Amino acid sequence: MNEDLYNIYCEILERELEPALGCTEPIAIAYCAAKMRATLGFVPDSILIRTSGNVIKNVKAVTVPNSGGGKGIEVASVLGVLGGREDLVLEVLSCITDEDRKRAGELIAGGYARVELATGVPSLYIEITGQGRGQTCTCTVAGGHTNITHLEKNGVVLADRNADCTGGDKRGEELRSHLSVSRIIDFAKHCPLEKFSRVIDRQIEYNTAIAREGLRGRYGVSVGRTLMTHYDASDVRIRARAMAAAGSDARMSGCSLPVIINSGSGNQGLTVSLPVIEYAKEYRKSHEELVRALALSNLIAIHQKRYIGPLSAFCGAVNAATGAAAGICFLLGGSDDEIGRTITDVLANVGGIVCDGAKPSCAAKISSALEAAILSYEMTTEGNCFKRGEGLVGCDIEKTIESFGRVGREGMRETDAEILRIMLEE
Asked: Across the strands, what pairs with 265?
């Protein structure tokens, strides 16, 4: 790789590994609402929220951070309007006060926020309109959790990057087009550490902190605590799964600690990083070895997701666990070929876990995906790998990744729609 490609990969890490407070879909709603209110200049008299089905799916059952235990689109949007700090982006709700929470409850009870399903839009789509004092403002986020595609006040268009909202993060898409497994391995081995260590160090710090909190407290159904209590906690395989699951336990249940995300998801950020960190501790690897392994694990996960898109019925924990398995293989001295075979084995095993929204059970799916990921790495060390033509395993690792991506984006589209129909019936 040349210097230009190193810089592209560093920019990908900078853009993708950003801090977020809570599940990214409700936070994206709060960010959109806060941006609308800031543009309008005052708290409107009422708001209308139109979102895609995937956003509804991922907000329905997850606790909004700093909400006092509240869930749902109305909670996220109203808190964003009242006390959201749009300048903090995905940490928009970090400054919510008791007064904000009290007022939000009153407004929601009074029908302040109305929610509609938007059809014919990207899988990640949020449009919030506020009205009051004879004025109107609309903010639209589409294709990415902070990607404002349209901003309009009193009929005057202030920003219109994708007027039909069919596009997403064009710069991100162009950058990710340069990804391949062989290039990612080269980057992790040879790129000067100072170019990307800061963003990885922040991931280590933030994600370790929320995982430890998840083990200390009782969040969700305590998947991480259960693993540490009922299994052999001296086994690095168990600790790797438990730490990632515990971070998700806390995050899905409203913990106010931030997470460094991957591919727009905090759960994926936890899954792709914490197992590699645990293996580095177990095998006494240097900080540089850990940082380089995490760069690889993050980029492998991002590489897979570029074929699937930001939201799908294909569980992102699988992509992240695949990245973690590749990172562990790299960390422990695996060859380039062994890294590719490890990726293949994870996808061939659990490439099809269904995403039915963000909620406490995400922690269990993370644990299951990581169990398969660790098994896949250990199969690789024995020289075993699933072969071309066995299911979706392709002629090479790139073809395999692309095939599973097609399933996630195209093949599971109707699955995604049916999941939403069932959830809206509840």
From this structure: 262
In single-letter form, the type of residue at position 357 comes to G
The pLDDT of residue 167: 47
pLDDT the model gives residue 310: 76
Alpha helices (H) along 217-265: 223-230, 236-252
What pLDDT shows up at residue 164?
46
In single-letter form, the type of residue at position 17 comes to L
Assigned CATH for 170-425 = 1.10.4100.10
Q: 49: part of which helix (H) or strand (E)?
A: strand 46-51
Q: What is the mean pLDDT of each run of 10 residues along the chain (426 residues)?
A: 92 94 90 97 97 89 90 95 94 94 96 93 94 97 90 93 56 90 98 97 98 96 97 97 97 92 94 98 98 98 90 90 98 97 95 87 96 97 92 93 91 87 79
DSSP 253: T
Q: Which of 297, 350, 305 shows the shortest CA–CA distance to 326?
A: 297
Report the C-alpha gap between 324 and 241 in whole angstroms.
11
- Which architecture, in CATH terms, is 22-160? 2-Layer Sandwich (3.30)
DSSP 259: E
Alpha carbons 425 and 420: distance in angstroms, whole number: 9
Tokens of 395: 């002629």
Query: If you ran DSSP here, which 8-state letter would residue 412 be given?
Result: T
* Contact by Cβ (8 Å): 124, 27: no
Segment holding 72, helix H or strand E = none
Taking the model in full, what pTM does it have? 0.90
Of 186, 177, 136, 142, give the one whose Cα is nearest residue 36.
136
Provide the residue ranges of all domains of the chain, joining segments of one domain with +: 22-160, 170-425
